[in-house]
Amino acid sequence: MAAYKPVVVQACPKLGERITQDTLYWRGYKTPVQIKEFGAVNKIDFSPVPPYNYAVTASSRIHIYGRYSQEPIKTFSRFRDAAYCATYRDDGRLLAAGSEDGVIRLFDISGKAPLRQFEGHTKPVHQVGFLSDKYRIFSGGDDYSSNLWDIPSATEIVSYSEHTDYVRCGCASKVNADVFITGSYDHTVKLFDARTKSSVMTIEHGHPVESVLLFPSGGLLVSAGGRYVKVWDVLKGGQLLVSLKNHHKTVTCLCLNSSGQRLLSGSLDRHVKIYSTTSYKVVHSFNYATSILSVALSPEDETIVVGMTNGVLNVKHRKPEEKNEKSQKKRQPAYRTYVKGRTYMPKQEDFCVSKPVKRVLRKYDKLLRSFQSSKALDAVLEPPIMLHTPEVTVAVMQELHRRGTLRSALAGRDEKQVNLLLTFVARRVIEPRFTPVLVTVADMITDIYQPVVGQSAIVDKQFLKLQEAIGKEIDYQEELLEVLGMMDTLFATFTKKRDMCLEENKSNGLTEIVETNMNY
């Protein structure tokens, strides 16, 4: 009796993801820690000084979290209604936040009660920040105004009412202590100088502006609104440098890494995109469970924190770098010890002793060897095999068809098993590498279970899905044939024109030769 030959699984090349240095770097973060807040997380801000705690604004509270703590180490809750945009000062000692009642509150990190309250806005204040001189605060509210406040006296210095819609974002220049920028739902970004009574520059973003960011050098400005992230050159009067459209929904937040070489953008499409600030191409992407409202990176890029609409705070820490310490293990034999003699060619007088190789068979191979067709098919219809290695399932089906036992293996199944079969066939029948085998399988399943159609709503639904998938594939094939016909016509036309040009060139050359001979 001949030895059993295992089923040959056709190997198909896979289009793998391109592994770059950025991919390896951003994958170097640990499994995220999930922290539940009381409401949507509208702002995350890291302290600029060690130990790099971060403030999370959600609902009517501001929570201060330690670097690795999952519980807040401090809470500011002196708000009547929702709190917005808690922001640290550059020295990490003060924290300013807006609120739904239009009052701006200034907190000392070591205390609980507000040090100052700034009243002047008539509607909610969504944007608060410190100027780089550390003694002034700028704010933006839903009353369309952008105000500048003096911290020591708690008074308003100047108020700008140039926006025509809600002011929802802003940032301050780190180079010039008098310059700050605001973004509004009126589609504009305005640059203000505290020494003037009006804005010094207006940039038209084209969509309601959700976030603005100024590079540390102060020369480049990034604005986010709608599905667009736009980069502007401030030194050239607000000239547009690049417009990025990599998100499918509204972009809500922006962030830079510590070196300024990577730009992060979060969106309602549940993705955080990471761009290179030299080429402005996406170098990596993170996917999250729900829509993203805020994102922040720690000053040393050790922690990335993302706030979402469902109140979940997603915290990722970088894995510690492994130290290359010399192990004290016993020295192993050299590689050449193991490969010694492998390339030796036996001579005529040598006596060769062959060592029998034990072949380990898979479960489906063992069942096929014992002619248990139905059980062999069940073995390859398990979810891990169907999802990750569908080529194994198709190879077994092809072997059963070759043996002539595929119909008997498909017959006699209950509702759950038929549902599993039809789900696999409907999903994979459109793949070119599986189509020849699965079309035959689909034909047999239809013939076997046609009498029971209408008895199970689940099976009927899968049959409809299969019909829809095959119908769409036929439509695609027809469109492709039409395109091929058009391309053949174009290529034929180009070939005819080329032949005509060659004939004309040849005839002109002969005429010139004849004329030359007559002259001689």
Automatic annotation (TrEMBL):
Its main location: nucleus. WD repeats lie at residues 118-159, 244-285. Signal peptide: none annotated. Keywords: Nucleus, Repeat, rRNA processing, WD repeat. Residues 344-490 form the U3 small nucleolar RNA-associated protein 15 C-terminal domain. Pfam families: UTP15_C, WD40. One of its GO terms (cellular component) is nucleolus. This is U3 small nucleolar RNA-associated protein 15 homolog. Ribosome biogenesis factor. Involved in nucleolar processing of pre-18S ribosomal RNA. Required for optimal pre-ribosomal RNA transcription by RNA polymerase I. Part of the small subunit (SSU) processome, first precursor of the small eukaryotic ribosomal subunit. During the assembly of the SSU processome in the nucleolus, many ribosome biogenesis factors, an RNA chaperone and ribosomal proteins associate with the nascent pre-rRNA and work in concert to generate RNA folding, modifications, rearrangements and cleavage as well as targeted degradation of pre-ribosomal RNA by the RNA exosome. PANTHER family: U3 SMALL NUCLEOLAR RNA-ASSOCIATED PROTEIN 15 HOMOLOG (PTHR19924:SF26), UTP15 U3 SMALL NUCLEOLAR RNA-ASSOCIATED PROTEIN 15 FAMILY MEMBER (PTHR19924). One of its GO terms (biological process) is positive regulation of transcription by RNA polymerase I. The gene is Utp15. It is found in: Nucleus, Nucleolus. CDD domains: WD40.
